[in-house]
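FAQ: What does the model actually see?

It sees only this:
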Amino acid sequence: MSKATFVIIPEYSQQTSRWEVKVDLSGKRYTINVSWNAQMEGWVMALMDSDVNLILGGIRLSQGSDLLAKYKAYCKDLPPGDFYILDQQGDYKTAELSRTNFSTRYLLCYDEGEADGIY
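And it is asked to produce this:
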């Protein structure tokens, strides 16, 4: 019987506005690129396969729901789990993800979801 897995995507350094990480999600290797978009004042993510071919880009990072939910119906190469922004302080009503609080307060997480009926 397997267990569901919750992965915290490795954090970036606050000294940079762009970072990239290779990570195994649901048994496959992906490259995730995250960058600060100064014009829209928000973080965006691009997801690539193991050969660094773009699967999906321009994904605005925001808290509240699965970041990829609206793309899953037509983007077959997405990992099957869910991406979330986790507020370590649990204040989902008034807090905002900003240039300076990503990785100190907010984390990018991947939830592989249900496995063998256990969650």
